[in-house]
């Protein structure tokens, strides 16, 4: 495998959508979304300057710290129906093509 290089790629959690209800077409949805340049771990324990997390539900939009978002995910993670990540490095990964 000479001349072949694989790099690890990191992804940052940017948002989650939680569903509360018995069936998908009824109930309530809550979104947790990050705005800004910061990064949070899955547990919400890290935050870089400039990032903000928001909880958006049927009635309100609330600003939360990364630590608070970690606590929300710990308590409500089983309701998550959709996660969105941002790829940290968007450079193209080039691999040598297979010989014909």
TrEMBL record:
SUPFAM superfamilies: Cysteine proteinases. Residues 1-88 form the USP domain. InterPro entries: Papain-like_cys_pep_sf, USP. It comes from the Eukaryota. This is USP domain-containing protein.
């Amino acid at each position: 495998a000479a001349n072949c290089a694989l790099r690890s790629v990191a992804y940052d959690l940017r948002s989650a959508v939680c569903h509360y209800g018995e069936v998908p077409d009824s109930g309530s949805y809550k979104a947790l979304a990050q705005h800004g340049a910061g990064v949070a771990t899955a547990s919400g324990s890290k935050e870089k300057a400039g990032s903000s997390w928001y909880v958006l539900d049927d009635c309100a939009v609330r600003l939360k710290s990364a630590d608070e978002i970690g606590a929300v995910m710990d308590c409500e993670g089983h309701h998550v129906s959709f996660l969105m990540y941002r790829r940290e490095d968007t450079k193209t990964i080039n691999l040598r093509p297979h010989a014909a």
